[in-house]
Amino acid sequence: MPHYPYKPFIWDKSETLSRDEIRAIQFVRLRETIRRCSAIPFYRKKFDEMELRPESIRSVDDIVKLPLTTKSDLRDNYPLGFLAVPREDVVRYHGSTGTTGKPTIIAYTRSDLELWSNLCARFLVAGGLKSHHTVQVAFGYGLFTGGFGLHYGIERVGAAVVPAAAGNTKRQIMLLKDMQADALVCTPSYALTIAEAIKAENIDPSELSLKLAFLGAEPWTEQMRETLESTIDIKSVNNYGLSEVMGPGVSGECYARSGMHFQEDHFIVECINPHTLQPVPEGQQGELVISSISREAMPMLRYRTRDIAVIYSGRCECGRETLRMGRVIGRSDDMLIIRGVNIFPSQIEEALLSIEGAAPHYQIILERPKTLDEVRVRVELDRNLLSDKMIDMIQLKSRIEEAIHQITGLHLPVELLPPMTLERYEGKAKRVIDNRNIVTNNL
Ligand code: DLL
User: Fold this and answer.
1) How far, in Å, is the centroid of ligand 1 from the Cα of 218?
2) Residue 388, exposed/middle/buried by CB under 10 A (0-12, 13-18, 19+)?
3) Closest Cα to atom 12, ligand 1: which residue?
4) Core-most of 72, 212, 248, 347, by most CB within 10 Å?
5) How many Cα atoms within 13 Å fall on the side-chain side of residue 124?
């Protein structure tokens, strides 16, 4: 085994179970989860339709016999249709990060929160966190699972939290400096914003104690990691999760940074072709489907994450034998995550529809000139909206931008186009043009 100088990097002995041991635990927990899911009308109906009884699941591989669950199933059962315990047993609610419309509500019992803290503690320790460290959390605290999830994980490790929450970059830098934080927790894009501001203020990174950053909640690239690390001289580790199955803590990189380790004793992960719904061979890109097999309040069977990634097996130099995932490459639906905010092309459409003559021909252009995503919206105008007067066109442009901002919370530049300039389609229209050319380090 290669030399691995830092110890301990294992928070919990269960992280180093052999594959056979993991499978055995998964089987027991999956059967129990199916039993618990029978309390949820959505699953009960599905089980009845499929004539499925817990006994028909004889191994973990039989998971494919179980129904898939989608975001729209959760929306249809908003807010608490998926609750598997009496309401009085719930001690916390969180939700998805969508900016508009109703969020997806996720419930936790006391024991769910215990587990969640442990899962976050595991990936933090795996990534290099020590109990004597101080960690600044620059994630939002609220329905979003990032702030609270990481907060309790850090405390569980015994490290000290500075709950700075998201935003106010100047204050973030002041706190980083004054509190001499060893680690930063936020989205990769926000980490870069902070790093650039540190550079702009001519602060020498050696004035800070920052050594580590635990980044997640949105896609990022290896180039972005390099830029970030060279700007402020830190080591950054990636972690992945989603509210529907828990929040952060589903998988995370260890200090070796060769893929994100799934916490397989609590989640069963599959990788499927999003069109055929059939499993893809190991190492090939597919949509992650995740079952949470230890949750009490909201167990989740085969949740379609829409996240496209590769998963692979093999012993890591850290000693873990869990499946790992590469970076999230994109989403099988068209959801965009811009500056940490989830938006759907349909929301842009909704904004355009509120301005007569500005829809339905539009394109969302995604670009990544450096490390941050940039988005612009190209809107084809109806003849009635055309004007010879520059002032009219400028006002129209800002009305559209404001409408988009109202709905998405984002300021996206709009480009106005004369009638009949955008391509027409006979089948589905391609609304999102992704020119980002994201390169991934899959394995
Ligand atoms: O973002 C949970 C989280 C918080 C993970 C903090 C890590 C750190 P949601 O708001 O429900 O939950 O968004 C989940 O975010 O389906 C992915 O598309 C994306 N995502 C999360 N982590 C990563 C990552 C949290 N490391 C959605 N890389 C997921 C790429 C990520 N995408």
Assistant:
1) 5
2) exposed
3) 242
4) 248
5) 33
Alpha-carbon distance of 180 to 194, in angstroms, equals: 15
This prediction has a pTM of: 0.80
Alpha-carbon torsion 44, 47, 51, 52, what sign? negative
In a domain, 25, yes or no: no
What does the pLDDT look like over 198-251, one tens digit per residue? 988 999 999 999 999 999 988 777 867 887 898 899 999 999 999 999 999 999
Q: Does residue 248 contact residue 218 with C-beta atoms inside 8 Å? A: no
Residues 375 and 318 both lie in one domain: no
Residues 354, 306 share a domain: no
Cβ atoms within 10 Å, residue 49: 9
Q: Are residues 396 and 275 in the same domain?
A: no
DSSP E strands in 77-133: the ranges are 90-95, 105-109
Measuring from each residue's beta carbon to the nearest atom of ligand 1, which residues come in under 6 Å? 96-97, 144-146, 216-219, 238-243, 247-248, 305, 307, 328, 331
Domain of 130, CATH number, reads 3.40.50.12780
Range of the domain at 312: 13-18+80-331
Helix axes 110-126, 145-157, angle to 10 degrees: 70
**Residues 385-400 pLDDT 10s:** 888 899 999 999 999 9
333-373 residue pLDDT tens: 667 878 777 776 767 877 887 887 676 678 999 998 888 88
Place of tokens 């955008």: 422
178 and 89 housed in the same domain: yes
Q: Alpha-carbon distance 318 to 10, whole Å?
A: 9
Task: Please identify, by atom number, the ligand 1 atom nearest to the C-alpha of residue 250.
Answer: 5
C-alpha dist (Å) from residue 75 to 8, 95, 371, 396 = 42, 11, 33, 34
Nearest to 145 by CA among 183, 185, 179, 191: 185
Residue 97 lies in a domain: yes
pLDDT computed for residue 425 by the predictor: 59
3-state secondary structure of 172: helix
Instruction: Output the CA–CA distances (angstroms, integers) from residue 104 to 91, 174, 430, in the order listed.
Output: 17, 35, 27
Which of 331, 357, 373 terminates a domain? The answer is: 331
Do 280 and 349 lie in one domain? The reply is: no
Which residue's CA is the closest to the ligand 1 atom numbered 10?
97
